[in-house]
Specification:
heterodimer; A: about 550 residues; Gyrase A, domain 2; Four Helix Bundle (Hemerythrin (Met), subunit A); 7-stranded mixed beta sheet; 19 helices; 14 strands; about 45% helix; flat; B: about 625 residues; 20 strands; NAD (chain B); MnmG (chain B); tRNA processing (chain B)
């Protein structure tokens, strides 16, 4: 079980400098195994006693005999708060990949109050990510936004006010201002927050109008109150859920590799991982459990899951594995469905039909699918094209396209679809690797023809997968308003107050009590929508309600 | 310079409207030799607009003025002709009192009070300029060239500063219809570096009651169980009814067709009008879908036939006013006695003031009422009272009386003005008070009488009434809390249980053998005896106790909040801070803080758009400085 407590005990790491090229980058690691991780990936070269600015690293080529270190000097011999120059060593491929500065801070004398290490590699995007990946592989996990500061707070290194203020500086004061400053992608989110604020103000203003202008005629005010408060309730709830989604995605999108037994799923996983992770064999059903791996695809962390082959089986263990595969598929953002092109037979490949059924028609999951539909991507991969001759392949391809057209074409009720190219085929040769994702019809699966044996089109598939991830992430981002657990809690408290207010209204309790609940509700949202003053309430009141006795 | 003793006062009050009255009465009653200068001695306490006192949040202000020793509550109790309690069907904390005044009796009453107050000199004249030496006020120069000297001056000029009356596209200089404007005093204020702004307000035409057909109209009677505004008043008398009618599509069409003759829509009027009291043309334009607007017909005096059609403020030409009025039910043959009009006037940006209402730039100069950008007789009177009190306290070398936002609507009013300023005529609303449950009309005396007594303004009569009520209340509360192991107390916590019903029913039980349903459960003898004891207390006290019990939870929560907020009042923010220099604040926040320059973190926290994170940064900044 991955409990919250475990989460707090993890060793975390992050690139602390902004993304992009710079002179140096900073990678921070904090937690009990920070030093252990560093000793795996660092080879200390020398100590630089004169370190006081970042420039020191650049000057460190001037060898200073005082700073020479004895042979076999290891990371664990490093003195805390001293600057060392070291090589970064990828122990998977036995190679030095970069030179970097290194400082270790012993608990509790560090920012977080835990053992902490800072590595200062050269500032390239690729090498920094590569090192981060190395650290991740060595047992750390990626930190959440503000998690270092949170730990500092939890370890009593700073108080809450300082913690918030520091986070605030990082986040330019409020989620909202950050979003406004950031980019137009978040325009949708901003308008969502504005709707929340406006709805809150509206229902509060309606109550205040009833209180302060008892002799005015207000038509339908209670109807509007209930309507708007219900809408508001939904909006806040949605934000809370978006946080949960956000946290799930923080750890990387889930990519499931599925298909019938022996379609080459594990081989594909190994191709992605560039190592033998899954046991592969020619015996169908080799993978009975599922295998989950974190993978760094260019600069994106994803979770790739190799699943048990889908087929009707009498073996209880295998059956359980197959059931579980469906579970995983449901939870995945992208499904790579593998088919052995030499065995392709659409009339009997029930699993593929099944999978589309599972995704589209399962009533229990209808709600889930509605929400996830857009983000869930099905990619059909025909493997083992190396086993066919060019002519055979050509013939198979046209047959496949015809079959898929007939199967999925009926799933698209829109007549306009006929004119569109809704089979998105990425063919073996001369494929433009810069696929424009936006032109791809989301309802229709992608088709790839690859070979895990001869590496045919693996890179194109990877690139496509990467583009899909970027696309899905950006569409997810639109829904993310809140990025910290504290904000989520505030939203929950606000929702609670709103609920009280609605109940009080329905029970015909005094308006001033309803007003108190609503004001409390707004107050909890200060963090997210900023302070709401009496003047804001009155502005809304005079805008929406005709006053004037 | 040799000054004749006759021309020398402790305090001069300029203006004798609702602010001026309370200002000159409080300073003279606090023992200071006071002069009040007014353009027209026959218009002391004139109701230039609505002939009414009170209303939501305003009724609160009147009772607070009374608890501090002011005059307004006593005056309206004596001269009111219809009294009503508003919001009786809503929560008890937002109930408010409103009274129609006989505007002539009210004026007479006020003039008589002023004339019979010791230490108070009444002068009919106009103030043209301030006499200021070394940034300290020394007196005023009158339009006749005569000079009056004083240690403190209180300006309560209402709408008179460069007042400009608009009726259609015709306009003329006046302080209000029928009175001179004060055209020179503004210049003197500007010369003394005070920043002025311009506001607009308006009033309705006055109608001849003989030409109104009341038979068709809905009648609105007064409430006989009304609790008088003043602690010293025994009872009030309802003498008249008001009437309700409505505008209709025809009315709206006439207004729409004549907008080109409206000074508001032609851009003739530059001043900013109040949103809560829009003219009828504003309402018709802004709320197109509303089929009708409510009009209250209010009699101005027992001895006059003039009616005030509440809800019809307008500055359209006289002919248009008559045309649209005659489309309204009951007004088909109406005659206008005085046209409705708009008036523009100068005000001093209230951010120029300290919480004591003294100006920051000129020592011993105090401002109160519409000159501070407010609207309403009650808002004016409240400020007049505070300005009079604080001018007197200053001359006596004592600390000013500054009421907190958690103590009085007066505190909210003044704090809002001083901290946030105002761009439209400021009116009090209950929604402006954070601690609405604490600031009720019924407990104004409990909140403020001790202050009134301490500064020497609250007379024995009112103070003793308060003391008696306070004792009775505590007794009643104790009785309810302790009787029968708190059973009654717990019952009263329920929103549907009415203490007066319990009291009345228990009295009935004594007289009948019927087992009446006081509550769902059949009553035991013990309970009957319990309720019968309620008859020992007055209805007013029981209602107060009930209210206290019902809202205790919320009230305690608000008190806790106040305690927390009060802490922030001790974090001072220097006026000279450039918020740009504090790292971590967003541009939006910097802009707001630099504009408003809050004096404390507490004030900063109330500014729209300030995030808790920004407050944290300010706190860190304060800590660092300490």
């Amino acid at each position: 079980m991955h409990s919250i407590l475990n989460n707090e005990l993890d060793t975390i790491c992050a690139i602390s400098t902004p993304e992009g090229e710079g002179a140096i980058s900073i990678i921070r690691i904090s937690g009990s195994i920070a030093l252990e991780i560093c000793s795996k990936i660092l080879k200390i070269k020398r100590k630089n006693a004169n370190f006081n600015t970042f420039n020191a690293k650049i000057n460190c080529n001037k060898r200073n005999s005082e700073n020479k270190i004895k042979e076999n000097f290891s990371v664990s011999d490093c003195e805390p708060k001293q600057f060392y120059v070291c090589n970064i060593y990828d122990y998977f491929i036995n190679a030095v990949i970069d030179e970097a500065g290194f400082v270790f801070m012993k608990a509790p004398n560090s920012y977080t109050g835990e053992d902490m290490a800072e590595i200062y590699p050269h500032g390239g995007v690729f090498n920094t990510r590569y090192i981060l990946e190395l650290i991740l592989k060595s047992g750390a996990r990626l930190a959440y936004n503000g998690e270092f500061t949170k730990r500092a707070y939890l370890n009593k290194k700073i108080n809450l006010i300082q913690a918030e203020a520091i986070l605030d500086i990082i986040k330019s004061n409020s989620v909202k201002s950050l979003l406004i400053a950031n980019n137009e992608l978040n325009g949708q989110l901003e308008s969502k927050l504005n709707i929340i604020k406006d709805n809150f103000l509206y229902i509060l203003a309606s109550i205040e109008a009833l209180i302060d202008f008892p002799e005015e005629e207000f038509k339908d005010i209670s109807k509007m109150f209930l309507l708007k408060s219900k809408e508001l309730f939904g909006l806040i709830e949605h934000l809370i859920n978006s946080y949960k989604e956000y946290m799930a995605n923080k750890q990387g999108l889930n990519v499931a590799i599925a298909g019938k037994p022996n379609a080459g799923k594990s081989s594909l996983l190994n191709k992605f991982l560039k190592k033998q992770r899954a046991i592969v064999s020619d015996i169908p059903g080799t993978t009975r459990d599922y295998i989950e791996e974190s993978l760094f695809l260019f600069n994106k962390t994803i979770k790739i899951i190799d699943t048990a082959g889908l087929r009707i089986s009498n073996d209880d263990v295998e059956k359980a594995g197959i059931d579980f595969t469906y579970e995983i598929i449901k939870k995945s953002d992208i499904i790579l469905y593998l088919i052995d092109i030499t065995l392709v037979d659409f009339t009997s490949d029930v699993t593929l039909i099944d999978i589309t059924k599972k995704l589209d028609l399962d009533e229990d999951d209808l709600e889930f699918i509605k929400n996830r539909d857009k983000n869930k991507k099905l990619i059909i991969v025909f493997n083992k094209i190396d086993k066919l001759s060019d002519d055979e392949l050509k013939e198979k391809k046209s047959e496949i396209i015809k079959q898929i057209e007939s199967k999925f074409g009926t799933n698209v009720p829109n007549d306009n679809m006929k004119d569109n190219k809704y089979i998105n085929e990425h063919i073996v040769k001369n494929t433009n690797s810069n696929i424009n994702i936006n032109n791809i019809n989301e309802n229709i699966p992608e088709i790839f023809f690859i070979s895990t044996v001869s590496d045919l089109n693996i890179d194109i598939l990877k690139k496509y997968l990467y583009d899909s991830i970027i696309n899905i992430e950006s569409s997810l981002k639109e829904n993310i308003a809140i990025t910290t657990i504290r904000q989520k809690n505030l939203l929950e408290k606000s929702l609670f107050c709103l609920n009280n207010a609605i109940n009080a209204f329905n029970n015909a309790e005094p308006y001033e009590i309803i007003s108190i609940e609503l004001r409390d509700g707004i107050n909890f949202l200060k963090d997210i929508i900023g302070n709401v003053s009496n003047e804001d309430i009155l502005d809304m009141l005079f805008k929406e309600f005709c006053i004037g006795k | 310079m040799k000054v004749k003793k006759e021309n020398f006062f402790d305090v001069i009050v300029v203006g004798a409207g609702h602010a001026g009255i309370e200002a000159c009465l409080s300073s003279s009653r606090m023992g200071l030799n006071t002069a009040v200068v007014t353009i027209n001695l026959d218009n002391i306490g004139q109701m230039s607009c609505n002939p009414a006192i009170g209303g939501l949040a305003k009724g609160h202000l009147v009772r607070e003025i009374d608890a501090l020793g002011g005059e307004m509550g006593k005056a309206i109790d004596k001269t009111g002709i219809q009294f009503r309690t508003l919001n009786t069907k809503k929560g008890p904390a937002v109930r408010s009192s409103r009274a129609q005044a006989d505007m002539f009796l009210y004026k007479q009453y006020m003039k008589a009070v002023l004339e019979n107050t010791q230490n108070l000199t009444l002068i009919q004249s106009m103030a043209d300029s301030l006499i200021v030496e070394n940034n300290k006020v020394r007196g005023i120069e009158l339009w006749t060239g005569d000079k009056l000297f004083a240690d403190a001056v209180i300006l309560t000029t209402g709408t008179f500063l460069r007042g400009l009356v608009h009726i259609g596209l015709f306009n003329y200089k006046a302080g209000r219809a029928g009175d001179f404007a004060s055209n020179k005093l503004s210049l003197s204020l500007i010369q003394n570096n005070l920043e002025l702004g311009r506001l607009k307000t308006g009033t309705t035409p006055r109608l001849d009651g003989r030409t109104i057909d009341f038979s068709k109209l809905e009648e609105q009677k007064g409430d006989d169980d009304f609790i008088p505004f003043s602690l010293s008043s025994k009872k009030i008398n309802n003498k008249i009814s008001c009437f309700v009618t409505y505008t209709n599509e025809k009315t709206h069409n006439i207004i729409r067709e004549n907008l080109d003759k409206s000074p508001l829509y032609c851009g003739v009027i530059k001043g900013i009008g109040p949103r809560y009291c829009p003219s009828i043309e504003d309402k018709v334009v802004r709320f197109k879908d509303k089929e009708r607007h409510q009009i209250f017909l209010e009699k101005e005096s027992l001895d006059s036939n003039e009616y005030y059609p509440n809800g019809l403020s307008t500055s359209l030409p006289l002919e248009t006013q008559l045309n649209f009025l005659r489309t309204i039910e009951g007004l088909e043959n109406v005659k206008i006695m005085r046209p409705g009009y708009a008036i523009e006037y100068d005000y001093v940006l209230p951010t120029e003031l300290y919480h004591s209402l003294e100006t920051r730039k000129i020592e011993n100069l105090f401002l109160a009422g519409q000159i501070n950008g407010t609207s309403g007789y009650e808002e004016a009177a409240a400020q007049g009272l505070i300005a009079g009190i604080n001018a007197s306290l200053k001359l006596k070398d004592e600390n000013p009386l500054i009421l907190g936002r958690d103590e009085a609507y007066i505190g909210v009013l003044i704090d809002d003005l001083i901290t946030l300023g105002t761009a439209e005529p400021y009116r009090m609303f209950t929604s402006r008070a954070e601690y609405r449950l604490l600031l009720r009309e019924d407990n104004a005396d409990f909140r403020l009488c001790e202050y009134g007594r301490k500064i020497g303004l609250l007379d024995d009569e009112r103070y003793n009434v308060y003391k008696k009520k306070f004792m009775e209340f505590n007794e009643a509360l104790d009785f309810i809390r302790t009787s029968d192991g708190g059973k009654l107390y717990n019952m009263l916590k329920r929103p549907d249980v009415d203490i007066l019903r319990l009291k009345n029913l228990s009295i009935n039980i004594i007289n009948t053998t019927d087992n009446l349903n006081i509550h769902q459960n059949p009553k035991s003898d013990i309970e009957n005896n319990l309720y019968i004891n309620l008859k020992n207390y007055s209805n007013e006290i029981l209602k107060r106790a009930e209210l206290y019990i019902k809202y205790e939870g919320y009230i305690n929560r608000q008190k806790e909040e106040i305690k927390r907020m009060r802490k922030f009042e001790n974090y001072y923010l220097d006026e000279n801070i450039d918020y740009k220099s504090i790292s971590g604040l967003s541009l939006e926040v910097i802009e707001k803080l630099n504009k408003i320059k809050p004096a404390t973190i507490y004030e900063a926290n109330r500014i729209s758009g300030i995030t808790p994170a920004a407050v944290s940064i300010l706190l860190m900044y304060c800590n660092k400085k300490i």
